Amino acid sequence: MKGHNFSSKREAIFKTIASTKAHPSARWVYDRLKDEIPDLSLGTVYRNIALFKEQGKVVSVASVDGEERIDADVSDHAHFICEKCSGVFDLHQSELSPLEKELFKSGFEINRKNVVFYGICSKCSKN
Amino acid sequence: MKGHNFSSKREAIFKTIASTKAHPSARWVYDRLKDEIPDLSLGTVYRNIALFKEQGKVVSVASVDGEERIDADVSDHAHFICEKCSGVFDLHQSELSPLEKELFKSGFEINRKNVVFYGICSKCSKN
DNA sequence: TCAAAAACAGTAATCATTCCTGTTTTCTGT
DNA sequence: ACAGAAAACAGGAATGATTACTGTTTTTGA
Description:
The structure is a homodimer. The first copy, chain A, contains 5 helices and 5 strands, in the order H-H-H-E-E-E-E-H-E-H.
């Protein structure tokens, strides 16, 4: 079965994703790790991210500048994406329950929700 | 300047996007129109969709199965995406104001928000 | 230690999207 | 209506993120 053997590269990839608030892309993880693990391959990063998603250990946040950005914080929270610096920021305490209730009544089964605000972050606003 | 000349193809592309609730992809629009306009090119569809986005006449909803899905209804509303049939459905009356207020206080400038629920639609649930 | 399963590197393939070049259409002023 | 100039376009090539493939290495469990 897939994803059941130990793999130090898989560990390193997950640790990298989980220990940053950058909401990284596959390439970001690869670039971050390639000094530490010179024989790491980008395909391995993609393969493991796909596995983590299947396992529910990471979620996809959004596609920013053509790259998928992921999050190892799978708790229910929203995101803000800055259209200037491409930064992705966490936003907690979303208030979506009225809408969710309505969906439930309509027979829709919600697996996950994705709330994304697009705009200019406070740092970029100053420049 | 761009987007200021009349173009019957551009008109047809916009009309196609605006007259469906399918939240179409570029290829969907192209396939829908190619019988009516045999010399239409896919690049023209992409180019015009990019123009409509710049003009605020369409918005990007989400990437579904690797294809960007757009909406000519630019009013503030959320979407539900079925992970089985890839259908995109409108959801009105989202209740996000508490979160928006907080963002505003933090100096973030919101250009647009994108609220997407992922799950299984009622039709697919029955099968 | 050994064979099967899993994971991997490295590279090729895929596919949505964008770019480029030469042609056609639209616009504007005469 | 006519003649540039600007815009829009077709068709195909290029790009770039992601995925698939193949042969090799690592892990596992007996």
